[in-house]
Design a protein that fits this description.
202 residues; alpha+beta
């Protein structure tokens, strides 16, 4: 059985944005040995709330910390009247998965880039329609479709069952079920070495 890796993440997870290039690099290096997938962890799925000035300052401090550690850049822009809630964006990831027939890594990267680099509101149908390359009316319909609502909630439940509450979390299954590989930021070099080590001792 092919070794499987889960990247438990969320479109609004700043540390996930910092870690994503490292995971993508490891995925490219290990493509023949490991099946990489991404699971939406549901970082911001409570009651939808707007951001007051204190929240915006706190976010920008976090982004600076992520930049200091990972080198990833942020525009610092926060969309006007932005509601810090990620469930709609998580559903868009599942729409992309349905459209591509596999883990939508490219879409997820572009989704996060749209928020962190371009300062766009990734819960808006117009933004998602552009990323998904489908009609805005169709996006609005699909976002509320029970198939994608339920699919995303299953992701949240799976993440919770695997104790992946702090994002990003990376889990590896070498044939005996998913085990924690890392939590938080990790480099591709360390990730590849750890995967190879666990595959050797399985």
């Amino acid at each position: 059985m092919k070794t499987k890796l889960l990247f438990v993440t969320d479109p609004l997870c700043s540390w996930c944005w910092g870690t994503l290039p490292e995971v993508l690099s490891a995925r490219e290096q290990m493509a023949q040995q490991v099946e990489f997938d991404l699971i939406m962890g549901g970082l911001q799925i409570g009651p939808p709330t707007g951001l007051v000035e204190y929240d915006k300052k706190r976010l920008r401090r976090l982004w600076q910390e992520v930049t200091n550690v990972t080198g990833r850049t942020f525009s610092g822009k926060i969309p006007e009247d932005f509601v810090y809630h990620s469930e709609v964006a998580c559903r868009a990831v599942e729409i992309a998965r349905n459209n591509t027939g596999g883990p939508p890594w490219d879409f997820f990267y572009q989704l996060q880039a749209s928020f962190y680099e371009d300062g766009l509101d990734i819960s808006q149908p117009a933004v998602l329609a552009n990323l998904l390359q489908i009609d805005e009316v169709d996006v609005s319909s699909l976002i509320s479709d029970s198939h994608f609502v339920d699919a995303v909630r299953r992701h949240f439940e799976l993440a919770a069952s695997l104790s992946a509450s702090a994002l990003p979390t990376i889990l590896l299954d070498t044939g005996e079920g998913y085990k924690l590989l890392s939590g938080g930021y990790i480099t591709a070099e360390y990730l590849v070495a750890e995967i190879e080590h666990r595959m050797e001792i399985k």
